[in-house]
Design goal:
About 40% of the residues lie in helices and about 15% in strands. The protein has helices at about 15-25, 50-60, 65, 75-85, 100-115, 140-145, 175-180, and strands at about 1-5, 85-90, 120, 135, 150-155, 165-170. The radius of gyration is 16 Å and the shape is globular.
């Protein structure tokens, strides 16, 4: 099996990093809504959508934003376990305005945390990848992958609970059950 795995909010804790950066830069954020909205920047208080997008872009332009991001609990072990049994490809999308810098920072992070992962694809259209399964959080991507015959596994967030997926991971420790499902 070839398993595609998203990076942000699947392997890395993008949401927590965003909250840290918002607080560090003096912005107020409604942390209670952080897992309810796929667009994390929408949780900034007293900001228009345009202002929130600009703030997010300023964070994404900072190399340390990516390099100091923590992995989600159990994700490193889970990805390594899947990679031992299957072929794993990390499929991620770089920030629009800072693509090359973002790609470099993400590759450095992956090399440091997942050195045995050799395949990385920077592709927004993940459903066009030659994969059998996708592990993802973004609702639109889960839907598109499933429509294109790719078995979809959602990392559970409030913002994707209304999406019909083939399997739902509530935490990475459940990856062993996921592997049993893959072979069922």
């Amino acid at each position: 099996m070839i398993i595609g795995i998203d990076m942000d909010n699947v392997i890395t804790d993008f949401n927590s990093q965003f909250v840290r950066y918002a607080k560090k830069n003096g912005y107020k954020i409604d942390e209670t809504k952080i897992d309810e909205n796929y667009k994390t920047e929408k949780c900034l208080l007293n900001k228009t959508d345009e202002e929130a997008d600009e703030i997010l872009e300023s964070f994404l332009a900072d190399e340390d934003f990516w390099l100091t991001m923590e992995p989600i609990e159990g994700s490193i072990e889970g990805v390594n376990y899947l990679n031992y049994i299957h072929e794993v490809v990390i499929i991620t999308v770089p920030a629009k305005r800072f693509q090359e810098d973002c790609k470099t920072s993400k590759m450095i992070w992956l090399t440091e945390h997942l050195p045995k992962i050799y395949k990385v694809s920077f592709n927004k259209e993940k459903w066009k990848e030659k994969i059998d399964i996708i592990i993802e959080d973004k609702p639109e991507t889960l839907i598109k992958c499933k429509e294109n015959g790719i078995r979809s596994v959602a990392i559970d967030y409030k913002y994707n609970r209304n999406i019909d997926v083939d399997y739902r991971l509530f935490r990475w420790a459940e990856v062993y059950s996921l592997n049993s499902w893959i072979f069922s």
